[in-house]
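Suppose a colleague, Dr. K., hands you the sequence of a protein chain of 320 amino acids and asks what its three-dimensional shape might be. Before reaching for any lab equipment, you can write down a predicted structure in token form. Begin with the sequence itself:
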Amino acid sequence: MELERDLALIITRFVIVAVLLFSTAGYFGRFHKYLELASHFRVQYLLASIVGLSVCLMVRDWGWAIGAAVSAAINLVAIAPWYTGKRSSNNEAAGHRLKLVFANVYRVNKRREAFVAFALRHQPDIVIAQEVDAVWDKALRPLQEQYPYFEVLPRGGGSGIALFSRLAFERLDIVLPEGEGRPGILVKMNVGGSTVSLLSVHPRAPIRRGHLERRNKMLEAATSYLQSLPAPKICVGDLNTSLWSPYYRSFADQTKLVNVRKGFGLLPSWPTFLFFRWLMIPIDHCLVSDDIRVIQARTGEPIGSDHLPLIVEIEIPPRS
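The predicted structure, expressed as tokens, is then:
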């Protein structure tokens, strides 16, 4: 019994040290891609810290309990703000409401009809899909019956993108670092008398050699476009970075956009094979200029992809 207790303490102390190291490493993500990778798992670090703290308190190991508490606090400080600060409005009819559905549909996902049914069931004004290839292009065509305005740019290798809208839009020229091989979509549309700009991009996942640099160049290009656009404006896409990455924070700070998650929680979206949503990480994003009020933001039911879709309802300010 004493041996089992000592072994449990050794394992607990090892976990506390590891979580402390990884929690701190995430703040130095600009120095190496693996350090940035460490920034994405704040929820997992918090849960591990709470377990370690509980064990230490049970056995009255006060010194290590303090270490676990510090680790928990580091990650709680990063997580808690996303559950507070939801902006309200005294006038519910102040602007025009717009509902968006976004999903990385995953190019090898064979449940294509499930996504089409999902979009039609939720009846958004705008549907945006990423990782659209030629097969997905064909599968998404039923949406054209209810969304007469659309732009579909099928590409292989997860680079394709599509936008379907009930509202007429004007396609704006956009040149991204990978050119037509990995395009984005930039449009402007009239929403209740206000001209709204919408940008959708899909940077590469920073896993393979050179992809970190490609992702960051895409984010830099998107930042430049968003800075040049007048409000109200929206950016939506699988940005392949989480809320706690220094690159994400730089993107949000420089564009001065607000993530729709603010006040609605983390809304983790990837990877769905983990089953437990609180173990997923938030890499699918919708950001809006601060004149846009977010009415609702949530993840939708699984669609066969390794990503959960985002469902966002916003209120566009009336034209001044």
